[in-house]
Specification:
By secondary structure, the chain is of the alpha/beta class. The chain contains nine helices and 13 strands. It has two domains: about 1-115, 3-Layer(aba) Sandwich (Rossmann fold); about 120-235, 2-Layer Sandwich (Dihydrodipicolinate Reductase, domain 2), CATH 3.30.360.10. The strands form three sheets. Strands 3-2-1-4-5-6 form a six-stranded parallel beta sheet, sandwiched between helices. A five-stranded mixed beta sheet has the order 8-9-7-10-11. A hairpin with a 2-residue loop joins strand 12 and strand 13 (about 235-240). The chain binds nicotinamide-adenine-dinucleotide.
Length: about 260
């Protein structure tokens, strides 16, 4: 399977290593990167335009770059008939972008694939939705320093937080748009479950945690769900859970597997 990447950061590096270790199954054809950072994190060329990326004839493009990349390239990739994996799911909280991308997916031969990322229980949420879900709430706790560079810096003295502190409370849409690098999990919960407005989200700076902790609860006709994950940070990016890259690898395994679970 020919895979093209967008991005050259922590997730791209791990996905490239996974593919590189399985050369009979996967071939990374190229990575689309920013002109300001053209380093390659694998043994493949980097390119700077979508036309060059699509010229490598990928079966699947994996976006692991950020919201701006989904906005810039998402619909065009689908419209070209190429399957697209979006890991920056928070970008899809932008209603205009969602309309554009979902329209492209529905009106092309390509599929938009959204990995679970660091969120536990995506299968249960999506299955439970078929019977009806009334309530979904996600509480995401990270060490205070993981919220550096976010709006929490303006509202809280992150360096001096000594007890678990809610730095944001609102809908999944508000969380995903205000915290683009830290609330993709909230968007994935909304997309798998009952949508961006009904999914409640709390973001917490907790000095007692060293991992990214996501607590998910859902109640509906299927019953009740309570799940928590203590996700290790990615080796190269503390804001990103290692699970984000692992969930893309699982998705790639599904693309090539005889048995899928
Ligand atoms: N779904 C999830 O659970 C989940 C979890 C973690 C991260 N994410 C998303 O994955 C993204 C990547 O994570 P990461 O840890 O690899 O980040 P990273 O910061 O290590 O790497 C991102 C890379 O993408 C490049 N980039 C940024 N914008 C680009 C663009 N428009 N075109 C091409 N390249 C671009 C940057 O130069 C950088 O090298 C995050 O920004 C976040 O949106 C999702």
């Amino acid at each position: 399977m020919k895979i093209a990447l967008i991005g050259n950061g922590a997730i791209a590096k791990l996905v490239a290593q996974f593919c590189g270790a399985r050369p009979t199954k996967y071939n990374v054809t190229a990575a689309l990167v920013l002109p300001t950072d053209v380093t390659s994190v694998g043994a493949y060329p980097v390119v700077q335009t979508l036309a060059e990326l699509l010229a490598t004839k990928p079966d699947l493009v994996v976006e692991c770059a950020g919201h701006s990349a989904v906005k810039a390239y998402g619909a065009a990739i689908l419209n070209a008939g190429v399957n697209l994996v979006v890991v920056s799911t928070g970008s899809l909280a932008d209603q205009t972008l969602w309309d554009e991308i979902s329209h492209a997916a529905e009106n092309s031969t390509a599929q938009l694939k959204l990995p679970a990322g660091a969120l536990p229980g995506v299968d249960s949420l999506a299955a439970g939705k078929l019977a009806g879900i009334e309530h979904v709430e996600l509480k995401s706790s990270k060490p205070p320093k993981a919220w550096a560079g976010t709006p929490a810096e303006k509202t809280h003295d992150l360096a001096n937080i000594t007890v678990p502190t809610v730095i944001f409370s609102g809908t999944a849409r508000e969380a995903a748009l205000a915290f683009p690098k830290n609330a993709n999990v909230a968007a994935t919960a909304a997309l798998a479950g009952i949508g961006f407005e009904k999914t409640k989200v709390s973001l917490i700076a907790d000095p007692s945690v060293t991992q990214n902790v996501h607590r998910l609860e859902a109640d509906g006709a299927f019953g009740s769900l309570r799940l928590e994950i203590y996700a290790n940070p990615s080796p190269d990016n503390p804001k990103t859970s290692h699970m984000a890259a692992l969930s893309i690898m699982r998705l790639l395994e599904h693309e090539a597997a005889a048995i899928v679970i």
